[in-house]
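Input chain follows. Return structure tokens only.
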Amino acid sequence: MSVILQATVISKVYTLGRSGEYQALKDVSLTIEQGEFVSVMGPSGSGKSSLLYCVSGMDKVSSGSISFAGLELDQLTEKDLAELRLQKMGFVFQQGNLLRNLSIIDNIVLAAYMGGSLKRADINQRAIELMQKTGILDLKDKDISQVSGGQMQRAAICRALINQPDMLFADEPTGALNLAATSEVMQILTTLNQEGMTIMLVTHDAKVAARSTRVLFMQDGQIVGEFKQGPLTSQADLPEQDGQLEQADLLDQSDQRDQADQPEQADLLPKTGQLDQAGLAQQSVLKARENSLSEWLAEQGF
């Protein structure tokens, strides 16, 4: 696989007025290859979000260099950097950050309209396809005040994908969601990664990080640990298992699901209440990966 993102000895220092300076990142180096799903964990204030913002060009580093898709970010003008983010990067944030005066579909297509490289009819068709895949097509004309948090986050994922980016950056995308909505959003991101999308995700949650191929742990502005767990086996490749999972181990229990979060049947989500043998096996694999990651975190004293 080829490298899509490389950060070399980057540091970020914030000026705090008269009180001095705060160093959020300290000589951090990072390489992400195409097709990877990298999670970044760590306590609050450890530099997780600062790292994501810097390597995606949303914030400037104080020193060091960052290369994305062969382009050196510090050599780009602000206009070129904004164009790179618009066309080649997708972003999902904790709160969704959708515009309240626009419908769901208008929020999704806006970034593509701004890009100006495609016909609006083609953009609208892609938005329809993305909403169908994520189970929110029936909500396309709703205001964001009329949908649940999980549905809003799925719309944010559609918006991030509308320009067919090379990489997704997600900053605590499940931080404000309940268990069922978190499972649905992470199933979408997992499937996208299995289809080839490169993802960098910031999270506090081991359940979320268990779906990634690699986990980085940060403390005091530095990467202090790395846990490699490989790609999550796709449902089609999972072996048959004997027995059944305990009901408490399933992330998609119907009694945990907010009724407003129930999706229509979609390509990226299993239909509610219809987990087959492969689906149950995937839940078992996820539980094992979560346990392995939690044990590693404990062993490292994180």
